[in-house]
């Protein structure tokens, strides 16, 4: 049983750190992020805190951070995003890169 649970827990922790890197970078540059999810499929747990809904889903095979895009500009304002929901091209790359950076930093520390 431990041989099955241990890899799932470690993988889940790596996914969490990776997605947290994306989420924190998005928030740092003012990108509206309406959802932070660990896993895919039906939600087992969901909690809205501020403008973001945090989800733990049934299939622990990854995760995602839903971020605003240029098409989401009007929705970001409606749902509580700030005036910086849509940002300059240079800053747009930061959230995408932070997930990988967070994973590498975490891996180096372990």
Walkthrough of the structure:
- With 110 residues, this protein is an alpha+beta fold.
- The chain has one domain (2-109).
- 49% of the residues lie in helices and 27% in strands.
- It is built from 3 helices and 2 strands; from the N terminus they run αββαα.
- The protein has helices at residues 2-28, 73-78, 89-109; strands spanning 35-49, 52-66.
- The protein has a two-stranded antiparallel ribbon.
- β1 (35-49) and β2 form a beta hairpin.
- α1 packs antiparallel against α3 (89-109).
- It is globular and about 45 Å long.
- Residues 83-90 have low confidence and may be disordered.
What brief labels describe this structure?
globular; two-stranded antiparallel sheet
Secondary-structure class: alpha+beta
Extract low-pLDDT stretches. 83-90
Question: What's the SSE pattern?
Answer: HEEHH
**How many β-strand runs?**
2
Strand content: 25-35%
* Global morphology: globular
Can you summarize the main beta sheet? 2 strands, antiparallel
Provide the domain count.
1
Radius of gyration: 15 Å
Helical proportion, percent range: 40-55%
Beginning-to-end CA distance, first to last residue: 24 Å
Number of helices: 3
Mean pLDDT value:
75
Placed side by side, the strands forming the largest sheet appear as: 1-2
SSE layout and pairings?
Elements: H1 2-28, E1 35-49, E2 52-66, H2 73-78, H3 89-109
Antiparallel strand pairs: 1-2
């Amino acid at each position: 049983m431990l041989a099955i649970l241990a890899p799932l827990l470690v993988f889940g922790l790596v996914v969490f750190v990776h997605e947290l890197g994306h989420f924190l970078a998005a928030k740092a540059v003012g990108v509206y992020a309406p959802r932070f999810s660990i896993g895919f499929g039906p939600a087992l747990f969901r909690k809205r805190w501020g403008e973001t809904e945090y989800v733990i889903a049934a299939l622990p095979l990854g995760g995602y951070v839903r971020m605003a895009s240029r098409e989401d500009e009007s929705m970001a304002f409606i749902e509580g995003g700030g005036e910086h929901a849509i940002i300059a091209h240079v800053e747009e790359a930061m959230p995408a890169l932070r997930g990988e950076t967070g994973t590498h930093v975490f891996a180096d520390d372990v």
